[in-house]
Amino acid sequence: MYSDGVVVRNNSIVNASGSTGIGIGFKETSDVNIEGNRILHCATGLYLDVSPYQPDTTNRFTDNLIAYNGVGVRWLNDWHGNVFTGNRFKGNITQMVVEGGKSANRNDWEGNFWDDYEGFDRDGDDIGDTPYELYSYADRLWMDVPEAQFFKGSPMLEALDFLERLAPFSEPDLVLQDAQPLMTAELRMMAKPKRAQTPAGGGLDALETLRRSLGRD
Description:
- Helix content is 12%, strand content 29%.
- It has helices at 139-144, 155-166, 206-213; strands spanning 7-9, 12-14, 22-27, 33-35, 38-40, 44-49, 59-62, 65-67, 71-75, 82-85, 88-90, 94-98, 108-110, 113-114, 132-136, 173-178.
- It is globular and about 75 Å long.
- The N and C termini lie far apart (61 Å).
């Protein structure tokens, strides 16, 4: 918290499961890189409060696994300036919460995996054909009345959520949209660099010599 220019990479943050448990929290934090971390079984995976704070800066979240948390990402308010790319959101009870009933869509969401995405990949490029869109339905109840969060996942709230989706009484709030959701939770592998070619007259090519010795010209 209150830190700028920080890099948090390749850590496992597990079981911050108390009522206020947070995997990584950001309070007025700017220009940070959060990359390749595993944030598992926490009450809240990521918590953002007025971050980034400094003007014209961004916070970058890349290739993190945010899984099996009560809430994947919780926002104190409708903030902006965060970029989420290549992250995997799996098994969270609730993917996203924005306190105050607002939206996280002022941030950049692209190329993340969402296990509740219901679209298709007809062209086989591992990217969903339609955007991932997260709406707020009956979960508005426990966001606005924190005591009701105790019943999150109970048959009662699940029934309310189902009815709200089936025939919403009011227009649901769009929490976020990811235009290019990934179809698989596997990390994308970078293409292997091409083997450098030996310049003409630049010496022995060991691989070519081996091929010839095996009769594989």
